[in-house]
Each structure stands twice: as C-alpha cells, then as structure tokens.
Specification:
Elements: E1 5-12, E2 16-19, H1 20-24, H2 31-38, E3 42-45, H3 52-67, E4 76-80, H4 91-99, E5 105-109, H5 115-128, E6 134-142, H6 152-155, E7 160-168, E8 174-183, E9 191-192, H7 204-208, E10 215-216, H8 218-240, E11 247-252, H9 257-266, H10 279-282, H11 288-299, E12 308-315, E13 319-327
Helix pairs in contact: 3-4, 8-9
Length: 328
C-alpha cells in the first residue's frame, strides 16, 4: 500500500511584532501577568493587505521548494482556516490561482486549531487511496481580524501566520502513520465567533455587541483541551502499537504554557526540550501553529531518521486530534 509522507514544509510569519509591552498599553495587563499565564512574549500581526490567502501562498511556495516540486505537480490543495478571505470563494481557490496550480482541486476545511491535523488526515486518505499523488496542505490564519483588543482574556493569546506541507507517496520525509480525530459539538458555545454566519448575520446589533470577535470561556476550554489532547495522543499511539517511551518528540498545538505543561506531564519520559514550543515567539496561531512548529523543527535539523514524532491539537467546535509521524 502507498504510504503518505510529508516531503516538504514551509511557513510564513508577518513582520509586525506585537509584544506584551505593546498590549499593556491597550488593556490592563503586564508582561509578567501574560508570561505567567500563557508563556507568550510576542506574537505576529499581519498587515492590512495580508490575508489568509497571501500568507498561505507564501508558506506553500516554501513548502514546494523544500519538496522539490512544482505547483503543476499538485493535484489537491487543502486549506485549514477559520479566518478565510471570504465565505466564498474558498481561500484554497485563491491560493490555487496565485500558485498557478492549474491541475489541482481546491477545498477549505474548518476545524479551528485542529485544522492542520484534520487536513493531514484528508491528505493521507487522498494519497493512500490513489485519488491523488501530491497534496498541498496549508493552514493560514489572520486571527487579528477577529480578535477583540479590548478583551484582556483573549487578545493576549492570538497571532497570525501560515504553514504548509507537501504530502506525497513519493520521496523521503515524515511518514504519516496514524491519525486520530474527534469532536464534541455539545461544547460549541465555550469557544466561538457568535456572529457572521447565517444564524447571526452582520447587523447593527451584532456590531454594537462586538459579536464578530472570538469569545472564549478560558477555564472551561483549558480543562477540555488538556483531557482531549491527552486522550487523542493515547488512542493514536495505541492504534499504532507504539508506546509513549518510543516517542522522540511531541509537537503540540501552541495554545498556552499551562496546556503544554500539562501535556509534558503525560510524556514525563521526554526531556523538556523534546516538547517543541514556539508560543513564546508567535502566540496561538490556531490551525497553523503545529505546522509552523513542525517547519521550524525540521529547519533546525532536530529530527533524526527512525525517530517517532507525535502531533496533537485541540480547537473550537470542539475538535481535537493526534498524528504519529515516522522520520524516514
């Protein structure tokens, strides 16, 4: 059977840096308060003329170059985003046009912060079923466009960025061995964007009530996130017949330091530096956070042939997932 593998990665971060000091001028907070609760020091913000499509395109170009493939070799583009340029057309179609990937089908998917793993799962299925030969997975978020910079509980968390991966049956790289996904719509109201869809279209009332910004019940989300990410990791490993002690690296969704510390306790056999972190620099970039971290991890040359790497994430919906990769 064909084995889907990540043969190239890329990422894009906007140039503008929003520091904790900057935030302290906008809401009642401080660098010490933010670092102690989130582990974040900086995050990146896109320009007004930067979008999910433009950031995703740049990440995709880097991934294609890394994989040694042209855009015309791609036959499917999957874009994970909760901040699309438009409701329609899809951001994937916009990126397809920018890349000149004329032979590629294009599709957006939305699983919030779990989007990268959901997209990897779809790419794996497309490759291993023989439907596609080369799939371009992109996760791109402009969270600054839906972040309320008057709300201290959320504005300190989120940043912008994009990541991409070329998934193929050909070449060497990170084999996608097992993906485990889950969801629980009963908890939807704990983390959501209340207005903008057909249930609550934009209106004077929705604007006045600031309903077009992220709303989150932080403490409740934290409890669910830790439990679901740990469960997903366990079930993914069990399905693979791999023990926790066999893992060389864990690359989690970069939500906040408290969640990462809780995940680290689960994998206590791993040295602290084997739980890869980028949240200090970039904050929570939703769907793109794992992809950005994976790209930086690869570019730093940290992985070795034969090692097993676990990805795990949790997001609004609720959604969650884990993926086991083998470095081959």
């Amino acid at each position: 059977m064909k084995q889907a593998r990540i043969v190239g990665t890329g990422s894009y971060l906007p140039q503008r840096v929003l520091t904790n000091h900057d935030l302290s001028k906008m809401v009642e907070t401080s660098d010490e308060w933010i670092v102690s609760r989130t582990g974040m020091k900086e995050r990146r913000l896109a320009r007004e003329d930067e979008y999910a499509s433009s950031m995703g395109t740049e990440a995709a170009r880097l991934a294609l170059k890394d994989a040694g493939k042209s855009s015309e070799e791609i036959d499917f583009i999957l874009v994970a985003t909760l901040t699309p340029d438009y409701i329609f057309p899809s951001t994937a179609c916009l990126i397809q046009q920018e890349l000149g990937a004329k032979k590629a089908a294009a599709l957006d998917l939305q699983a919030a912060c779990s989007g990268y793993l959901y997209a990897l799962s779809m790419a794996k299925a497309l490759i291993e079923s023989g439907i596609s030969r080369n799939v371009l997975v992109i996760a791109a978020e402009k969270l600054s466009s839906i972040t309320d910079y008057q709300d201290r509980s959320t504005c300190i968390l989120f940043g912008d960025g994009a990541a991409a991966a070329v998934v193929s049956a050909e070449g060497s790289g990170l084999a996608i061995k097992t993906v485990h996904l889950g969801a629980d719509g009963e908890q939807a109201e704990l983390l959501m964007l209340p207005a903008g869809g057909c249930r609550k279209p934009a209106s004077q009332e929705s604007l006045e009530q600031r309903m077009h910004y992220i709303k989150m019940s932080g403490n409740e989300v934290f409890k669910h996130a830790v439990r679901r990410m740990q469960e997903a990791a366990k079930e993914c490993l069990e399905a693979s017949g791999v023990s926790e002690e066999e893992l060389a690296w864990v690359i989690p969704h970069q939500a906040n330091i408290r969640i990462l510390d809780a995940i680290a306790k689960r994998f206590s056999h791993l040295p602290a530096n084997r739980l890869y972190k980028t949240l200090e620099k970039y904050g929570n970039t939703s769907a793109s956070s794992i992809g950005i971290a994976l790209d930086e991890w690869r570019k730093e040359g940290l992985g070795k042939t034969g090692e097993k790497v676990l990805l795990t994430a949790f997001g609004g919906g609720f959604t969650w997932g884990a993926a086991l990769l083998h470095y081959e």
